[in-house]
Prior knowledge:
Rossmann fold, 7-stranded parallel beta sheet, 11 helices, 2 domains, 35% helix, 8-stranded mixed beta sheet, disordered N terminus, 364 residues
Amino acid sequence: MKKIFSLALAAAMSLSLVACGGGGNTSTPAASNPAASNPAASNPAVSTPSTGDGTLKVGFAQVGHESDWRTASTKSAQDVFSAANGYELSFVDCDNDSAKQLEAVRSFIQQGMDYIIIDPIVATGWDTVLTECDEAGIPVIIIDRTVDDSDKYVAWVGSDFKVEGLACGEWLKAYAADKGIGEINALVIEGSVGASATIGRTDGFKEIAEREGWTILDSQSGDFTEAGGQEVMESFCQSYKGQFNVVICQNDNEAAGAMTAMDQAGITYGVGGDVILVSFDANKPYVQMVCDGKINANFECNPMAAPTVSEIIQALEKGETPEKEVYVSEHWFAAEDNVTSITVNGEAQEVIHATQEVVDGRPY
Ligand code: GYE
């Protein structure tokens, strides 16, 4: 069962005609601007535990600290699972190390946590430890990335990464058609190997690329970091100079690294550049870069799972059964307004023209 949480209500912003530096023409504003507001993000105060007499002990095994997205996710959890909200949070930064993450979960079991939250670094290798949590009677809530080899968790809250990849492909198709670009020669900087976010974004984009007959010249992991993105792009610039017209970065930090590498190689990107640059995550500074025309399009991944996780915990405290899968809302942003809508999996989806007012309204 899917439940889409629509957090988007900023109708007042919808008629913005304010454009940024390089962001194309401004003649047709997006019909609405759902991205400008995220109540869950701006109001981390959540209801306090309604049953029981004590604080709820929550252990959170976080992926690491590799990206701006991750920083926003960690902050959201720390804001929501605060003492003021009736929680005692044990936070472990697993530094992108799967062994460390399994160890963290086992130590949460030993400490007798009331709830365990996991953002799984990789999608597989989970059934044994989740069985241990189950046997200890500790409900597990998965956030963000998925666990693909076990269903021994109470709920998952996150994004549909394949839809993000498909949206990227559909936008590129429409954009290229509008600009009269007949041939796509793409380079992909993937996220961390084995992460469901990487797998979904890669599969989604590849599906459209294959359907459209595009060439993916190369696809390498930049590990979701700026340094990784720069390193991969430096090698791409050497190997494929003059051969590519699209660079897809699977997160914003990789896009920052790729921009540095392209600057150094004398390759221009963004609106009016040699290369169409696309990113995922859409953290606020990078939506600003879309607005400024440096990134052509950015596909949001919403890092604010924690308020929903708290609602799930409160439901469990009341003896209710929460939804097993909860999808957070996401939006697509573009520097120009030539593509205002795309169809993904048969569903029409808005592409938001990233005006300055859109950027200013972003919660993270
Ligand atoms: O895109 C990236 C982060 O799992 C969706 O992890 C997340 C990804 C996000 O490092 O920036």
